[in-house]
Amino acid sequence: KLNSYLLSFFTDLAISLHLFFTLVEFQFRLHLKFLKMNATIQQLQKEIREKQQELIAARKQLPLQEIEDYTLIDKEGKEVQLSDLFGTSDELLLIHNMGKECPYCTMWADGFRGFTEVIADRMPWVLISPNEPAVLKAFSENRNWQFKVLSFHDSAIGRDLGFEKLHEGKRSFMPGVSALIRKNGNIYRVAYDYFGPGDYYNAAWHFFDLFPKGVNGWTPKYIY
Fold first, then answer.
1. 128, 140 Cβ separation under 8 angstroms
2. Which residues in the chain come in under a pLDDT of 70?
3. How far is CA 212 from CA 27, 35, 208, 209, in A?
């Protein structure tokens, strides 16, 4: 009986030890995989930061692009010259919006609500829209946009700066940003970029990308 008991005991012990070391090995392999993937992620992040610095440096090498002193219209229907938007600054951030018809552009503009004072503390900035002044006024106030908005409904600024196309008499728009400077009485564009999911100008997409399902079919809305 004693031998039978010892055999049973050591058999159970062997099974338990096998299961234990199998679990330890699984956890060890899982940890190694985590360390390997984490190292890959950190390396990719480092490369992205380095490429971003290269991009910033490359943009600084762009030749100045002189542009016109365009006439825009404020929410009350009054004309405003682009040059007047600089105020006492020699820099101006210009946001190109596609209008109320685009929920994506609306999402980007909604996101700027939290940066209204932050950006303005560094430089003047304005959002321009193809919507007519009355439409822009109603829409921007409904969205609680406290920043300056102007209409380029009757202006060629969007087309001249590459954010508007005309096809068979129909206008289409693209969202983005232009960095403008004023020098010796003239206005120049020194850099520009386009907006879209995953860009550097709207953080929401990056938060979604942290999860395995990512965006998971989500799209911007007018009402959340």
1. no
2. 1-3, 5-7, 9-10
3. 21, 18, 9, 7
Q: 163-187 b/e with 16+ CB inside 10 Å = b?
A: bbeeeeeeeebebbbbbbbbeeeeb
Q: How many residues does the chain have?
A: 224
Query: Could you tell me the pTM of the whole model?
Result: 0.84
Retrieve residue 98's tokens: 């596609």
Question: Whose structure tokens read 């995989």?
Answer: 33
pLDDT tens digits, one per residue of 40-57: 999 999 999 999 999 999
Rounded to the nearest angstrom, the gap between the alpha carbon of residue 125 and the centroid of all alpha carbons in its chain is 17
Tokens of 184: 């010796």
Measured distance CA(98)–CA(144) in Å, rounded = 18
The C-alpha angle 192, 89, 138, rounded to 5 degrees, equals: 70
Both tokens of residue 195? 């907006």
